[in-house]
Amino acid sequence: MEYSFRKCTLEDFDFLFNLKKENFKWYVDKIWGWQDNEQKQKLKQDLNEHLSHKRIIMYENKPIGVYAIHITEDGDLFINEISITKEYQNKGIGRGILEKQLNENHKKGIRTILQVFKDNPAKKFYESLGFTVYGETETHYQMEKVR
Predict the structure, then answer these.
(1) Under 8 Å between Cβ of 55 and 5
(2) Which residue, of 44, 74, 88, 104, is most buried by count of CB atoms within 10 Å of its CB?
(3) Which residues does residue 55 pair with via DSSP β-bridges, in sequence order?
(4) Cα separation of 107 and 30, whole Å?
């Protein structure tokens, strides 16, 4: 599938909120309890602080996901977020995005890190790309792919 990226803007708020709710509500609900208003406030704060890191994944001129990365103080590339609407999951889009990123990082000698909810089946997907667990919090595994 041919996808593209565009910059994320504040006008993407509703799309991003619905995407977050679709893909992460059950995790959040299980741990802390999902409250729409609270999650909207968290998203507003996230956009205020990290809008420049986010790109909207597009397919046929339609937003289908979000991809956010940044370089840490240690020089690692941190994948803040990769989330695709359920309709477009398991079609190779996320794998394509991450494989391209990992190849670029490998050429530059950059470590790639991310974190994933402990109950998220995406952990197996990340492992299939060569990520390994290097730490954990109460709720997340911290994963890395070294050069």
Answers:
(1) yes
(2) 88
(3) 7, 67
(4) 39
Reported as a single tens digit per residue, the pLDDT across 96-135 is 999 999 999 999 999 999 999 998 889 999 999 999 999 9
Which amino acid belongs to residue 115?
Q
Tokens representing residue 26 in the block: 């059950």
Cα 73 versus chain centre, distance = 19
- Is 146 exposed, middle or buried (CB count within 10 Å of its CB: 0-12, 13-18, 19+)? middle
Q: Among residues 132, 101, 105, which one has the least CA distance to residue 116? A: 132
> What is the C-alpha end-to-end distance of the chain, expressed in Å?
27
Residue type, 135: G
**Helix-helix angle 36-50:13-31, to 10 degrees:** 120
At residue 3, the 3 state secondary structure works out as: coil
* Residues in the chain, total: 147
Residue with tokens 């990226």: 5
What the chain holds in terms of domains, given with CATH numbers, is: 4-145 (3.40.630.30)
Q: Which amino acid is at 76?
A: D
Q: What is the average pLDDT across 65-80?
A: 96
